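Example 3.
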Amino acid sequence: MSTAIPIRTRAPAQKSPALQKDASQERQKQMIARHFEKLANAPESRDKVCYTFVPGNLTELIGSFDMLPVLPEINALQSGMRQRSGGYIAEAEKAGHSEDVCTYVKCDLGMMKSGNISPTGTRLPKPDLLLLSYTGCFTFLKWFEILREEYGCPVVMLHVPYQEGGHITPEMRRYVVDQLEREVIPAMEKITGKRFDEEKLRENLRLSAQAEDDLVAVWESAKHKPSPIDGYFGGVYYIGPIFSSFRGTQDAVDYYRELRAETEARIRRGEGPMTPDGVVSEQRYRLVVEGPPNWTSFNDFWHMFSREGAVVVASTYTRVGGLYDTGFRHDHQHPLETLADYCMGCYTNLNLPGRVSLLEKYVKDYEADGFLINSVKSCNSFSAGQLLMLRQLEQRTGVPGGFIESDLVDPRYFSRSNIDNRLQSYFQMLDARKSRTA
Amino acid sequence: MKVVVGIDLGSTTTKAVLLDEHGEIVGRGITNSRSNYAAASAVARDEALTSTRFSLLSRQLDSVSGNLGLDARGTLEALNHAFRLELYLEELGALQDRVNVLCASLPANEHKAPLTEASREILNDMRVHAPDLFGPGSQRKSDFFRDIAGAQFIAGAERAAVDQRVAFERLVGLFDRAILDIETRVPEREFSILLPRAVDIVRPGDGGSDPLRQALMTAALAAAGETIEEVAFVGTGYGRQTLPFPKECVRSEILCHGRGAHRVFPGTRTVLDIGGQDTKAIQVDNHGVVTSFQMNDRCAAGCGRYLGYIADELNLGLHELGPLALRAQKIVRVNSTCTVFAGAELRERLALGQRREDILAGLHKAILLRAMSLLARSGGIDNEFTFTGGVCKNPMATKLLQELVIENYGNGIQLNAHADSIYMGALGAAMFGLDDVNAGRGGMLPTFAIKKGYLADDARAPCAG
């Protein structure tokens, strides 16, 4: 009997290849570059700058005053993807912010302390207005309080009632519209020196609805098998324009038209989405994902799914800036009411039963094999109650849930081996259950 | 005999289980994981093959015991002791060779001669006293060569240092360097030589006039001569990605622990596995298929490694912690399960005048409370509840777990903890291997590359299948 040991040649550690970009992605890149150029030139052009957050963002209204939006969360996640967030967070911690504070906040503050150079390399202008149009995240309030001290500029706050009862009542809508009329619009008029132009807002809202129609068609394309999109990793690229500075613009309309056409072409070819492992058309697992992705190891994280043939058919993170696939569209006929509904309808403003019902609908409508929760340390708005949701979803759908933990942009909280271990175990669990059922 | 091999490459120990074609466990092996995972898995597998040979030998002895009035069990044990002694002496010889090489390479100065002389004396002394370690009823703190030889060498080094001939640290440093090389060796075990040699020790003589010796020799040769064909390998565990196996032969330890625990205790619905680096709470269905799981996040707080640090801090063997903690008069409240802070918390408590046993009890409880939280997150504890992993061998951990289960889930939960629970992951892996064979995927075998002595990168060869 020999004592040989089994040996194999290990493939060299593979670096995730760069994604091949679609035309729509190139278009988006150019749109973003132009926007950041405008921001860099704002001090000279005297364009007014409005900092605001993704959930409940009032981009159409901001645009109707010709103000330029800056979204600190997007800057933070972009810094994470470009491996700069670790340094920025260290900078913020040096300034006294605790390790337990939301890492988006610390990344943003660190970036500001380091010269406020945007992820594209251009300088970000100071805000003329801090527009807090979603109060469901308590950290947002504190974040802008800190920025107000730093920049000495006003904050206007739109208090957004939580959907505690699971729906929006006429009183809630009236409450938000009142604030828009009495607080937000007057503040914008004061900062810009312009009068509110309702017609311009209506036009922006009309453009928003067009883009939203196309985005929903893209989301729902994932009902096809194979899915032509990845609704989480790919999805975060798809939401870029509509969740940030471009909703209500012709640019966004053009982008989503192109994206939809690309998606439909992939369906015709029977092709899956482009991933770090190339086009994944043989899809072993269709998943629904809850929670934001990790940004510091984004491609690595995606690769853990794509190399196993796992494709995400729907995700809740990609609905954080608007839940269009449940029917909402910006309605130009009721401009302020529709803005109110939009703010109150964003995903993290839903109560837990509402979130569970949405996930259940996704699991069933998209015929998912499983659902996965990525619980991030930084975001209590997302993470609180997720295990409860997991159990309820398992009961309601009979589909197995998985649970992983990471963070948004703090690289210290991404443990590659731990996450990989859990994901592999989860995929193998799906296999084992499938073969038992078979 | 055809066997499938399951290997569980843990952060502390590496385990191997061999199943025959009918799914019966025919061999088990365990070793410390050391710095070379490939060597650890090879050694664990060799240990499992050795235990398989002893299973075969046991069958042989059973078949002849009636006619000869032989105490088959006692004889098997004696042969095993003799065999272990032979292996120990072989490894000691290799260690001696390595120490000699290291001493020879030392620069010529005032330390060289005394160091060489002292190390030779220590190792000779170890050789002389080796039989005491492997005699009937002998107590060893560990079965791993590193631990046994390390303890003996350190004791010798302490004696040498008392004589002021050579510094203790220098001698221990020499041992530490040598053992690293010895541990990466995977010496070939020639059972057709080793088993008869064990018979020679147990029943000396020339054989012709001694029917018992003759029968033992025949049994030993038959056990050594049977072909053992490994038809499938499956690897799992913390280090499974580093196993030299094709991807298809690697399974998650969560699935393996769940399945292994269910095999040993078929009523199992919830499994708690506390290993060196991970704690896992696993729910399984009535087929042993995992339905849900939770594990600790990125740090190893409250895992077996935590107890390892505590043991080091108190200069105790890992296996001594539990019995000592059982002697606690009260359980000190310990807040941190952080491995990094464990030593600090321990020293602080000792400085406050608290008893070592009471602190240890508190440290154990902190681990178990953390595990209970993980279990709750995975869906709670269902009957039956099986405890696996290295920590399940700790009697204090098992006692506290039982208490916490009753406190939180009532008296209706059966807690299963078995001395062999540490093998559950490897057992589950082997069961997956058997599935592969039954599904006609047994061809997915790694190619064996033979390289005697030290393992090196150039020993790697492509795998088949």
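Residues 92 and 109 of chain A are 6 Å apart (CA to CA). DSSP finds 17 helices and eleven strands in chain A.
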